[in-house]
Amino acid sequence: MEDIQFHGWLIDMFTDAEDGSDKSRKGAEKYIDYYNNRQWTEREAEILRKRGQPVVSFNLIRNKIDYLQGLERQQRTQPRALPRTPMHEQDSQAVTDSLRYVCDDQGYSDIKSLVWGDMLKAGWGGVEITVRMKRSSLLSSTSMMQPDYDVKLTRCAWDRMFWDPHSSEDDFSDASYLGLIIWMDREEAVRRYGEGAAAVFDETVSIATTGETFDDKPKFSWVHSARRKRICVIQMYFIGQDGQWSYAEFTKGGILRDGPSPWLDEDGEREHPYAWRSSYTDRDNGRYGPIRDLVDPQDEINKRRSKKLHLDTSRQTFGNDAYNSNVKENKRQLQKGDGHITLTGPAKFGEDFGIIPTNDQSQGHMQLLEQAMAVFEVMGPNAAMQGKQAGQQSGRAIIAQQQGGQTQMGLLTDALRQMDMDAYRKMWNRIRQFWTGERWIRVTDDMRNLRWVGLNTNPLSMPPGAVPEGANVSMMQGKLAEVDIDIILDDAPAVGALMDEQFSLIVDLKRMDTKGEIPFKAVIAAAPNLRSKGELLKAIGDAEQQPPNPMAIAGAQAEVATQQATAKLRNAQAEKAIADARQTMTPSDGGSGASEIDYAKAGAEIRNTEASTQKIMAETDQTRLETTLAGLGPVPWSILPGAGVNGQPVAGR
Predict the structure, then answer these.
(1) Helices (H), 159-289
(2) Is the separation of the CB atoms in 126 and 275 below 8 Å?
(3) Which of 273, 576, 553 is nearest to 426 (CA)?
(4) Which of 446, 603, 623, 649 has the fewest Cβ atoms within 10 angstroms?
């Protein structure tokens, strides 16, 4: 295909996509306006202003959408890799660490939240997963050493996305082409594509004020000047004649760059870099979000309130021909709080002039308004889902209600999870393709428990001292490109209400712990929202490692000596009591001897004395042991049973 013919084909594909998505894009603009409290047209607002009535929007849509956005932030997920074969079992953890490193490095959680907002408001959104060359790697790369790349994540704004109009799947998997609109200054375009493309740029300079979705923002003409020229570049990925994905970057004036797609999937086939998702798709392939169902109830609420206000502040009047001369002025006076009506001549109020009651109409609008409010409440996130039902409830009860209310939102939230899976899979494809050299990543920010993972490393070729002694380091057994894994999502931990409830239970258990079996340090570690928890635990650990006080040891030794003397005294008293009892039990001088009661009493005293003696000896042994341990100092956490995997200290200890 010649360049001119190919360029014309690209423009035709983009024009078809623009025309095919026109209805969806206009609807998205309307839904976003409703979210931003622009719920009256200019004509409707002008009518209200002529009445002297305020333009009031009772915005209920924002509350529901904001709740869903906050819910996503509480239920964020993390990727986890599982091996497909036994030989990759040890390397799957390194893959998990690599994916989480990319997410943290690029701020994927924040990007996903913005995409989720686009899906809720406009109806669709997505992420572009590409790579960028590291500058340090570019300077040090040679013919024998390939440059190093970082995975790059970019949010695709909803008003810059276009796609095959025949695509009907929510994930755009059946689209034969899709792409982005990119606006940039002419100087930036020259830096990106070179001076050779300047002629193409000059034919493309446009000051767009037509108000279309794809136009440059802002749309107002005052921001444009002759000194700043803006270029519209179209980036399109399409399935070529060979059945593989290719790409082209072009303007209306010509093609800037094109070729096979540089991105490969897990099978080595070319793919596009987009992970896109739409909330819903209708039978005409129109894409929309949950706001579309809320627009009509929102309109009814606004207009019912406005109509009731108009009826409550206006008066319907009647009058005969004799009264028509002053009707306009009197109606104006009726609308005033301190108005005055003047009846001319013999006119009588109620006969020649009067007010028609409209209470029935006002009450009717009020009833319909209440019904509209009730219908709006059950649409989307309801009170149970938001945890706003009346009554005092525990955190677990609130969570149970929220989980029940989220059932109706399952399709919508599942769409976001599927986009997550697509994004993580493409991240892994970029890692396999471009992380070919040796690479080290840090997978924890805890300075007391740093852990490093080596990728594509060869331990035999590493020089001595490359890994510091005692460092928490793990290395993959094989190459990244050879690892075969599956990716799943780890759900976020329980919400704060349940964590606070569990911590309250731990505190109650500590209060009942009379023997001190629950360490106070463990209670602090379990606190969910305690600021500077790590510093507090470190201070306690440092205090435990302080050398014992000599005065305290001397006092403990004196206490041991006192208890030993007391035990010896009790033991002597017990021996004397036993001797006296035996003497009492033996008859002398023909006496009758002790009675059976005396025998029982003496035996009880002997047993009591022996038990007291044993208790004192046990307390003495315990005090001696504690004194000895105090001199030795505390036992390090790292050698306690259960301290961590392979003796590694547990984070936070």
Answers:
(1) 186-193, 198-202
(2) yes
(3) 273
(4) 446
Exposure string (b/e) for 414-434, b if CB count within 10 Å is 16 or more?
Answer: ebbeebbbbbbbbbbbbbbbb
C-alpha–C-alpha distance, residues 4 and 10, integer Å: 10
The model carries a pTM of: 0.68
Rounded distance between C-alpha atoms, residue 10 and residue 249, angstroms: 10
Buried b (16+ CB within 10 A) or exposed e, 137-176: eeeeeeeeeebbbebebebbbbbbbbbbbebbebbbeebe
- Report pLDDT for 123: 95
Residue 199 tokens read as 């002629």
Strand partners, 423: none
Q: Pick the closest to residue 27 from 281, 302, 300, 380 (CA basis).
A: 281
Residue identified by tokens 């005092």 is: 392
Q: Are 294 and 29 in contact (CB under 8 A)?
A: no
- pLDDT, tens digit (0-9, with 9 covering 90-100), for 257-310: 999 999 999 889 999 999 999 999 999 999 999 999 999 989 988 888 888 777
Q: Using pLDDT thresholds of 50, 70 and 90, give the confidence band for residue 448.
A: low
DSSP state of 342: -
DSSP state of 408: G
Q: Output the six-digit token pair for 425.
A: 């899979």
Strand bridging mode 274-278 / 124-133:
antiparallel
DSSP state string for 567-623: HHHHHHHHHHHHHHHHHHHS--TT-----HHHHHHHHHHHHHHHHHHHHHHHHHHHH
Short-list 471, 469, 470, 429, CA closest to 454:
471
Residue with tokens 């929007």: 57
Token pair of 20, please? 């095919």
Q: Identity (one letter) of the amino acid at 516? A: G
Task: Give the integer Cα–Cα distance in Å for 286 and 123.
Answer: 10
Largest CA distance in the chain: 147
Q: What is the pLDDT of residue 439?
A: 78
**The two three-digit tokens of residue 619, written as one number:** 């307390």
Q: Are strands 452-455 and 473-475 parallel, antiparallel or unpaired?
A: parallel
* Token reading at 358: 């409209």
Can you read off the two tokens belonging to residue 651? 């984070």
pLDDT digit string (tens) for 355-410?
777 777 777 777 777 877 887 777 766 655 555 555 555 556 666 666 655 666 77
Beta-carbon contacts of 408 under 8 Å, excluding residues fewer than 6 positions away, are none
Q: Range with the lowest mean pLDDT among 332-336, 425-429, 520-524? A: 332-336
The sheet that has 473-475: what strands, in order across it? 439-442, 452-455, 473-475
What is the C-alpha separation between 24 and 288, in angstroms, rounded?
7
Q: Which of 187-196, 403-412, 467-476 has the highest mean pLDDT?
A: 187-196
If you search the block for the tokens 């209440």, which residue do you land on? 370
Q: How far apart are CA 435 and CA 99, in angstroms?
A: 12
Do the bridges between strand 177-185 and strand 485-490 make them parallel or antiparallel, or are there none, so unpaired?
Answer: unpaired
Q: How far apart are CA 171 and CA 418, in angstroms?
A: 8
In sign, the C-alpha dihedral spanning 207, 210, 216, 217 is positive
Give dist(CA 78, CA 73) in Å, integer. 12
Angle between helices 61-74 and 108-121 (to 10 degrees): 150
Beta bridge partners of 260: 246
Q: What is the C-alpha separation between 214 and 232, in angstroms, rounded?
A: 9
DSSP-based three-state secondary structure for 44 = helix
